[in-house]
Amino acid sequence: MQLDLHGLFEYNTTFDYTDYEYKEDCTRTTSFVAIFVSILYSVALVLGLMGNILVLVVLWQKRRSWGVTDAFVLHLSMADMLLLLTMPLWAADAVKGWSFGTGLCKLAGALFKINFCCGIFLLVCISLDLYLSVVHAVQTCSRTRPWQVQLICLAVWFFCLLLSIPDWMYLKAASGPEQEYYIECVYEYSSEASRLASHLLYFILGFLLPAIVLLYSYACVLLQFRSDQRVQKQRAVRVILALVLAFFISWTPYSIALLGDTFHFSSSKSKGDCEDHRWTAVRSTAVLGFLHSCFNPLIYFCFSEKFRHWVLTIVKCGGCAGDSGDFFPWDSREIEEATSVPQEEKGSLHQMSDIERTTAQQHNGEIL
After folding, report:
1. Of the N and C termini of the chain, which has fewer Cβ atoms inside 10 Å?
2. Residue 193 burial by CB count (10 A; 0-12/13-18/19+): exposed, middle or buried?
3. Helix (H, G, I), strand (E, B) or coil at 360
4. Crossing angle for the helix pair 209-225 and 101-135, nearest 10 degrees?
5. In whole angstroms, what is the distance from residue 238 CA to residue 251 CA?
6. Is 290 within 8 Å of 83 (Cβ atoms)?
7. Secondary structure E strands in the chain
8. CA 148, CA 65: separation in Å to the nearest integer?
9. 338: left (phi over 0), alpha (psi -120 to 50) or beta
């Protein structure tokens, strides 16, 4: 029996592979950047949870003597801890993509937006309270009415929740246009107008206007304190000023990158280039924003001697550090005392000047 192969081996054709473009498999390309970011998120998770839990413990021990600043610090720590709880999701996403579904994608993205907005609006509340007390001698909230501060904080949370509506609407777990096998937590806007409106709303209301208020408030406070070299006033301002600077350093690059992406100034996605597609300017600068959630306790430790002393004492002898009733780790009492001292001094100086003037007139009359 003969097997007829119909000329299968009669044609010897040579193929040219020089024009073939090899696209590397993104699932097998776990870059150094992705691994580094994942490790960074893990370290931030541990440090952030430890630091913010420590702050909450301090607040619980001094709950009977809370000031206005303490209430805002409480909500700052709560916002940071909510974002920290999403860190494992983002760490896994940095390495192998988003594998947690659309529901967790919306939740994690919304918490990211809420943390940013709560951070800057609560700092605005603290700064405005300091500005009105120092510059205009107006006390916005009273210790005898703590519900006023809590209402302000609830209003901040509600407004931040409203600003996160686009995240609940447009975030989705989907594959990229060039990577069908790589799932990402990305925005899928219904139109270009909705994308533009969402980005501009976030930038103007969530960053630009609060930043102007913060800069103006602290410029006026620092001008008010420039001629006063007393240590008490310097300690009263430096903690909150450090919080504001840390916030701007962490979130300004992301806000600028988002604004650039809004008007198509960001780097374009390279087709077939997994690394460029995954780590755009917006996503790269968001890493620094994530890390901000563990910065505030470090600032309290570095800039507040009382908080640092409490931490060292609690490590040595357990809960005995919280026995002191006059312990204020972020100097909230010093802020209130420092803002009230200038008015009392102005009055006393005025009275002394009248006495001196009367004495001088009597003395001049005696001489004449």
Report:
1. N
2. exposed
3. helix
4. 30
5. 20
6. yes
7. 171-176, 179-187
8. 16
9. alpha
For 285-336, how does the pLDDT look when each residue is reduced to its tens digit (9 = 90+)?
999 999 999 999 998 888 877 777 777 776 676 555 554 444 444 544 555 5
Tokens 């405005």 map to which residue? Answer: 128
Torsion of CA 354, 356, 358, 364, to 10 degrees: -150
Give the closest residue to 146 by CA, choosing from 246, 93, 71.
71
Q: Identity (one letter) of the amino acid at 84?
A: L
Which residue type occupies 81? M
CA 169 to chain centre: 23
| Burial readout 71-104 (b: 16 or more C-beta within 10 A, e: otherwise) | bbbbbbbbbbbebbebbebbbebbeebbebeeeb
Residues ≥6 apart with Cβ < 8 Å to 362: none
Is the whole-model pTM more than 0.90? no
Structure tokens at 195: 């994308």
Please say whether the beta carbons of 34 and 94 come within 8 A. yes
Query: What string of H, E and C letters represents the secondary structure of 197-227?
Result: HHHHHHHHHHHHHHHHHHHHHHHHHHHHHCC
Q: Which two tokens stand for residue 15?
A: 């193929």
